[in-house]
Amino acid sequence: MPDIIQLLPDSVANQIAAGEVVQRPASVVKELMENAIDAGADQVRIVLKNVGKALIQIIDNGKGMSPTDARMAFERHATSKISCAQDLFNIHTLGFRGEALPSIASVADVEVKTRRAEDELGTFLSISGSELKQQEAINTPKGTNICVKNLFFNIPARRKFLKSDTTELRNIINEFLRVALTNPGISFTLENNGNEIYNLPVSGMRQRIVNVFGKNINSKLLSIECKTSLVSIQGFICSPEHSKKTYGEQYFFVNNRFMKHNFFHKAVMEAYSGLIGAETIPSYFLYFTVDPASIDVNIHPTKTEIKFQNETDFFQILMAGVKEALGKFNITPPLDFDTEGAIDYTPQAPVSSTTPYVPKVNYKSGYNPFNYKSGISIEESDFEKKSAGNTPAFPKDKVPANWESLFEGLQHKEEAQQTTIAGLSEPEKKSSVPSSFVQMKGRYIVTPVHSGLMFIDQKRAHERILFEQYTHTLASQKTAGQKNLFPETLELCADDFELIRDIKEDLEYLGFELGEFGKNCYAIYATPSDLSCSHARDILMQLIEHYKNTEGDIKQKMKEHVALSLAKAAAIPYNTTLSREEMSDMLDNLFACQHHNYTPDGKTIIYILNSEDVNTWFK
């Protein structure tokens, strides 16, 4: 029987390694940016074509490589930073120069131009599928210029399963920002198909955050600084009102390396407890400085997950630091118990010698509002019988003509009681929109049905009505928007700017008209007719929140997200007084909807209080 175990060729081994290191174009951008930073560059430029599928070019002005180093960098297990196993626990830099290059070269065409400052000529390398095609001396500027072309050209299955251009660009931007936010002393430029997405000059840490996420975040940043023997924590957190419903502005860095850590995220959430809603997430940019020997960065291929020796201690230190920052800036309400003996500066009302006038109210002591017959005429009380004019205590024209019908459903008993309108019989459905309505606390519309009293949440009902209208509009024809006399501007970060650009065509079908207005800024020239101009900016920000962390093709469920966001923004708010006609029209439109029991995001609209349940209260 022949031997079955054999040594893999280097090309196959590199492709297997590429499966861990090079998952998508964003992985290449991350590895090459880290290499440029480790090379001492202070200017890094990233050029993309077709979001990296056709070309990823990284240009830096670092120290470059010699001809021998340039060739050795593409060999497996070649690095300039590790000479023994102990070095793995004392790593201060990012990538190991040469660690990812063999994996990248095994699945793409790679060209390298590099030169050291002390060399007159540089080196040019051309590698395709791990095979060296060309090496020669050339004249090139100091630094390194790497071009990665035709990514996954020899692995069609991997290329086939890449996401849409918008999703892949968003992944690249995420990796770009993770590196840029830790290196404010380096200028970064990101371009795609000739369009400049980011141009970040050398700046301080706070200014780098502002340059990335826009000027609006500047006033929301609260600095945090906490130093202990275990860890030094610096950075910024955002005030509670800046919290959002989706992830995207949560960054942990350890020794200038981005990391994901759910346990530490819980510490931040615990510090914000009581200041934000359960469904919102605060923004933070926190930088840990620790002894490299106390962490393990090699538990994940992409090194985004890091293991700490004393995670519980770090948790407590982080939570205390965030709480201190929130309290220092008076985000949490101060408590002052030391008031004994303090001077009271509260102004006192002037003392007047005249006795204030006490108003008097005339009322009928024998009036009983619950003493009535049939709800149409009020039974005369003893007081009224004794009065000379025998005038009714409650005018007949003020009594609802159908007062008695509000409670007629309580007199019926049915074998099966249902809690939604879907459970009503056909005769009940036909009469489920009666002519009598009561608005309760500016939130619910109450109306009788044969099985009891029906409660309708007016805001949710309006959301369902508008959602189906907008969905129909998107699927049928373009809607003309209402022109704004004074166009409002919407300034965004580059990532959000690209998202709006991607859904601009769908927004125009709804009535929005947007135009680019400077760097990462849109002007809102028109809005849907059902939406006021003041809500336009809010609705667009809600749309961005919907898409920012959506996996897969951003076009999927696009229309539903747009319609839902518009419906939520345009729906009548609570505490809005409705007339009888408005309530009647709302119920007519609600029951004309395809789904009238629940909102588009699954919240209950209708609830029926059964007469049998009411009868049990009085047993």
Short recap of the structure:
Helices cover 30% and strands 21% of the residues. With 619 residues, it is α+β, with helices and mostly antiparallel strands.
What brief labels describe this structure?
619 residues, alpha+beta, Heat Shock Protein 90, Ribosomal Protein S5, domain 2, 4 domains, eight-stranded mixed beta sheet, five-stranded mixed beta sheet, 21% strand
CATH classification class of the largest domain: Alpha Beta
First-residue to last-residue Cα separation: 88 Å
Poorly predicted runs are 332-349, 372-423, 425-434, 551-556
Q: What is the approximate shape?
A: elongated
CATH superfamily of the largest domain: MutL, C-terminal domain, regulatory subdomain
* Biggest beta sheet summary: 8 strands, mixed
* CATH-assigned fold name of the largest domain: Ribosomal Protein S8, Chain: A, domain 1
Explained architecture:
By secondary structure, this protein is of the alpha+beta class. It has four domains: 191 residues, 2-Layer Sandwich (Heat Shock Protein 90), CATH 3.30.565; 124 residues, Ribosomal Protein S5, domain 2, CATH 3.30.230; 26 residues, no CATH class; 208 residues, Ribosomal Protein S8, Chain: A, domain 1 (2-Layer Sandwich), CATH 3.30.1370. The protein has 18 helices and 22 strands. Strands 5-4-3-6-2-1-7-8 form an eight-stranded mixed beta sheet. Strands 9-10-13-11-12 form a five-stranded mixed beta sheet, with helices on one face. A hairpin with a 5-residue loop joins strand 1 and strand 2. Helix 8 packs parallel to helix 9 and helix 12 crosses helix 17.
